[in-house]
Amino acid sequence: xxxxxxxxxxxxxxxxxxxxxxxxxxxxxxxxxxxxxxxxxxxxxxxxxxxxxxxxxxxxxxxxxxxxxxxxxxxxxxxxxxxxxxxxxxxxxxxxxxxxxxxxxxxxxxxxxxxxxxxxxxxxxxxxxxxxxxxxxxxxxxxxxxxxxxxxxxxxxxxxxxxxxxxxxxxxxxxxxxxxxxxxxxxxxxxxxxxxxxxxxxxxxxxxxxxxxxxxxxxxxxxxxxxxxxxxxxxxxxxxxxxxxxxxxxxxxxxxxxxxxxxxxxxxxxxxxxxxxxxxxxxxxxxxxxxxxxxxxxxxxxxxxxxxxxxxxxxxxxxxxxxxxxxxxxxxx
Amino acid sequence: xxxxxxxxxxxxxxxxxxxxxxxxxxxxxxxxxxxxxxxxxxxxxxxxxxxxxxxxxxxxxxxxxxxxxxxxxxxxxxxxxxxxxxxxxxxxxxxxxxxxxxxxxxxxxxxxxxxxxxxxxxxxxxxxxxxxxxxxxxxxxxxxxxxxxxxxxxxxxxxxxxxxxxxxxxxxxxxxxxxxxxxxxxxxxxxxxxxxxxxxxxxxxxxxxxxxxxxxxxxxxxxxxxxxxxxxxxxxxxxxxxxxxxxxxxxxxxxxxxxxxxxxxxxxxxxxxxxxxxxxxxxxxxxxxxxxxxxxxxxxxxxxxxxxxxxxxxxxxxxxxxxxxxxxxxxxxxxxxxxxxxxxxxxxxxxxxxxxxxxxxxxxxxxxxxxxxxxxxxxxxxxxxxxxxxxxxxxxxxxxxxxxxxxxxxxxxxxxxxxxxxxxxxxxxxxxxxxxxxxxxxxxxxxxxxxxxxxxxxxxxxxxxxxxxxxxxxxxxxxxxxxxxxxxxxxxxxxxxxxxxxxxxxxxxxxxxxxxxxxxxxxxxxxxxxxxxxxxxxxxxxxxxxxxxxxxxxxxxxxxxxxxxxxxxxxxxxxx
Lengths: 333, 576
Description:
CATH superfamily of the largest domain in chain B: MetI-like
Order of helices and strands of chain B: HHEEHHHHHHHHHHHHHEEHHHHHHHHH
Radius of gyration of chain B: 25 Å
CATH class of the largest domain in chain B: Mainly Alpha
Oligomer: heterodimer
CATH architecture of the largest domain in chain B: Orthogonal Bundle
Strand content of chain A: 15-25%
Number of domains of chain A: 2
Largest sheet of chain A: 12 strands, mixed
Distance between the termini of chain B: 32 Å
Largest sheet of chain B: 2 strands, antiparallel
Largest interface: A-B, 78 and 67 residues
CATH superfamily of the largest domain in chain A: Periplasmic binding protein-like II
Number of strands of chain B: 4
Number of domains of chain B: 2
């Protein structure tokens, strides 16, 4: 009997000891930005200031769900990366705290939330990515219009993001609405497009490798994921719809009542400097910096592109409704 | 702990205390205390989070309302998902049980040569010890539009891999080992003289099989169907990769509802709906199995002659079937190893060790965290398993069936749901555990102990009470009996529980994806994130590591059992 109670007491002790969370001069972050893009920044910041960054990477929807669930006891100080519309949704959930980084005046105002709830750190347009071998075999040009994707040659060949989990998905829907001039045209178009879709992927960039390996033939993605795939040596073509697509503003924000806010603020101040902003180009990451003086990567070639800026007020208001409408009418449930 | 009361051993027996107190007096006091402790644990880690989850689903603005559940069910997609989940579960259970039965029968009755037996045993173990979506990813590469088998070998273009059938086969391959282990234990435990006698009385082999072997294995079949159905119902990772939008199931719907539409309430409602079929299946099994007696380990000796129950052609047929399935599984796993050793799986097949380098530098934190959590969850899970199993089978506490049922709840619920429930329950006072290792350990222990519990119950059901009664009538109290008589018999079940808890702690994702934090992270989550970020080499390398680690630990555990002179659960007693 005593052996059993002893075991139980030991269990309790272990439980108590493990409940004490680790703490130190580290900055805890949720990163929506993929790890391979984010790590160069975290490492550069640590080198510059000595502050270590402890991060977990999740897609936009998961991060938002976590912030909401952890509202009463936030676990992280900052959210890094991810499209602005996710942050707009986060504001209405009351999980963000405004902070205007020092030196942010250099960044154009349209890339910053007016009250300072989040700040843009990169630009990321929606583009098409297509397999070159497929194009050559079928004697086709890379798609230059949204309507090109309706071609029967793409039947069961398209991959793109599921708007429920991925920020890319919503930005694609918004692009179509803006490019085709209205919700009705957009949803008509998307119903036809759906017939060519092989699968909607959980993460925004999840379809790029299938396109690269020809499991899929084409898809709609963010530029950064497309460039990443291309720069790995896969034989793919990036192209733009002539009717236009959205440029998403990749952002960062302070978590309300999070721990170590001073460290987060230091990071955010650092992130808007031209030096930090130039790290995209230096690391071959296909984001466009928001700082006008920063270096731009040579991988980024936007010739002939036609872009819209996403009105965040409109996005915040209509996001949920549009995604649900997409789920109901397009995907079928 | 009890003060010495000055009564003799004989007087401390349950029968003696009957008149002393009310109902509880019938029960052994130490058993009652243990039962109370278990109830507290079950209450805190199973019932309390469930309560918070149901509260979230059914209480809006302080009043109970079915509004959120009816809103969920009003959407066609969710009703479709519900139907799909059930359909898939039933089909997977049937196919997996069938394949498992063939394997188990071949293994126990067909006198296969030793080499083949070892080969089959090692292949069988693979799907159990790897993260579930590795098989799914492998299938994508094997059967996708540019798949290795569909395109390169068979020249089929444009094949569609997403949907029900690929999900089904991936799940069957992943879960049939569960069926195999259950059925093998049962088949081995049947006294061979029963079949021999029937055979020598003139029955044909098929007749003997149909009227003697099969009925005796019914508890195994029932257990297997239940296990696999529950596993399929709760599976999240495979449908996430393979089902696509053509075949929604409840688990992926709940996940997407929560992570995509931030609808915690709706997600909670969906998960409640998932509970219902699990409950029904559980009750069915209780009534169906419970009515027959299956005791064949009675302590009485039996002749150990071998039976020629299986004709030669049948032997070869069985062997061929097993080999084909095993070879297929082997191929799928081979692809993962291949993927971990090349630069860019699918495009650049240059050999490289860079993925493993990444594993042991950037991936080291998740490795350390996962191993730490797994090694702590393991003994706790095993202990919980035999405690509950023992108390329930020997009816040492009132409400044993209820305790068993409650302990099953976290296993039956989809992992995402348990994860959300824990997040909701433990992020606020009174018990703040989010961000700690405790919450991860608790999630594993209370989710995976049912296999240990079932193992113990199945083992003890096969052991007649008279063995223990002999011990108590010689003067031993409950604890001594338990320690010296029951425990050695049940030790294989304990080890089975240890094995499963460790394996699951290394390979689960759906429950714990919401419980990781910046402080504690898991390998399986890294795999999923690597896969979604297209770092497939990393995903493959992590997977290989997990498989290797689990394989090593599992074999160490079995080795220990053998050293103790006992046969493992797979060799001797009814498993799972």
